[in-house]
Specification:
Number of domains: 1
Structural class: alpha+beta
Largest sheet: 5 strands, mixed
Radius of gyration: 17 Å
Number of helices: 6
Distance between the termini: 40 Å
Strand order of the largest sheet: 1-6-7-8-3
Shape: globular
């Protein structure tokens, strides 16, 4: 069993290791062709604000650093492979939109590699379930004096690539979103093939 500690009480006094990342390198899969960036406040996802009062929670927007990560973290999030692949209704693929951004660089707390080891001690923060401990970390990092725009972490579903969560206070830095049907996006077919997604017509 992988243990992930709670944030230390003196976290605010520990300088965070951060990375700067352009929103142009991030990808998001959405069911909608408008309303992005969308910042959820459900407290149902890994790095959501766990606060009890919904209207007081900070919002979170999840993105991938590659198309494979974006697809795996959304379209395939709750799917289990069968015979080494995934059977997905073609309507599920055709109903999704690829969202890209082109804004100002984001300053993100680094939850990967050596930075993660020295801060959290374990990569389990990207895999542990339920999400109560990662959410506590998200809340503590959101409150940190370094005022980061979000977090970069290793994707649970494509665990050799990175994913990003952006806090709502950094929403304007993402810039104006651009939408494209996922099925028509450059690289989508390759990503789906790499993930062994079989489009099911019936």
């Amino acid at each position: 069993m992988t243990l992930v500690p709670l944030p230390p009480r003196d976290l605010a006094s520990i300088p965070l290791r951060t990375v700067e990342l352009s929103p142009a390198k991030l990808l998001r899969i959405s069911r909608f062709s408008s309303g992005e960036p969308f910042f959820g406040r459900t407290a149902a996802n890994r790095f959501d604000d766990p606060g009890r009062v919904k209207w007081r929670r900070f919002g979170t927007c999840y993105l991938g650093c590659s198309l494979e990560v974006a697809i795996a973290e959304t379209l395939l999030h709750d799917e289990l492979p069968e015979a080494g692949g995934f059977s997905v209704a073609v309507t599920e693929i055709e109903s999704r939109w690829l969202v890209r951004f082109k804004g100002a660089p984001l300053k993100l707390a680094d939850l990967t590699g050596a930075a993660l080891k020295t801060l959290v001690g374990s990569g389990g923060i990207s895999t542990i379930m339920p999400y109560d401990v990662p959410q506590r970390w998200a809340a503590a990092l959101h409150a940190h004096p370094d005022a980061v725009d979000g977090l970069v972490y290793m994707s649970r579903h494509v665990n050799d690539e990175r994913a990003v969560v952006v806090f709502d206070r950094a929403g304007p830095r993402l810039g104006t979103p651009r939408y494209q049907p996922l099925a028509e996006a450059r690289g989508a077919l390759k990503a789906l093939m790499n993930l062994r997604v079989n489009a099911r017509f019936a």
